Amino acid sequence: MKIGKNVYITNNLNYQRYEVNCIPKGDCVIFISYSGETKTLINMAKTCQKKNIPFLSLTSFGENTLSQMSDAKLYISTRENLSHNIANFNSNLSIYFLLDLLYASYFSLDYENNFNKKLQLTSKSESTRHSSNPILMDESKQC
């Protein structure tokens, strides 16, 4: 959003099923699934295919239904067992890294324009933020 692109992140499966039917042409979808075999996501991917909406999948390494259907695929770390894990630390770090990498790559395609958009939006919405830590403050705002 900070570079003028609308992004929708929905954890609620009911909303996801609704939203996938509302995606206009020219948009794309990123599906994230550790197994790549979640039936609801596969059905949503089929909807995207029918509507010619391209989608990227982030799934665990190896072929799975979702990655085979995807227009592009990135693999997340595959170090956690589906049922015998304490938490999803490894896969969460991997997912965040890939999402950050996608954002940075897209940002760099038109770096100057995106940077200026970000500065304009940030100056409007974050004008009251400040810190006593000089490292965190914008040099142009320091005395």
Largest sheet: 3 strands, parallel
Terminal residue distance: 31 Å
Rg, nearest Å? 19 Å
CATH top level of the domain at 1-97 is Alpha Beta
Under CATH, the homologous superfamily of the domain at 1-97 reads: Glucose-6-phosphate isomerase like protein, domain 1
pLDDT < 50 stretches? none
Helix/strand/pairing class, anyone?
alpha/beta
Helix content: 40-55%
Beta strands, count:
3
Q: Provide the β-strand percentage band.
A: 5-15%
SSE topology string? HEHEHEHH
The helix count comes to 5
**Main sheet: which strands, in order across?**
1-2-3
Mean pLDDT score: 86
Describe the structure.
The protein contains five helices and three strands, in the order H-E-H-E-H-E-H-H. The protein is of the alpha/beta class and 143 residues long. It has a domain at 1-97: Rossmann fold. It has a three-stranded parallel beta sheet with strand order 1-2-3. The two termini are 31 Å apart. The mean pLDDT is 86.
Labels describing this entry:
143 residues; alpha/beta; Rossmann fold; 3-stranded parallel beta sheet; 5 helices; 3 strands; 43% helix; globular
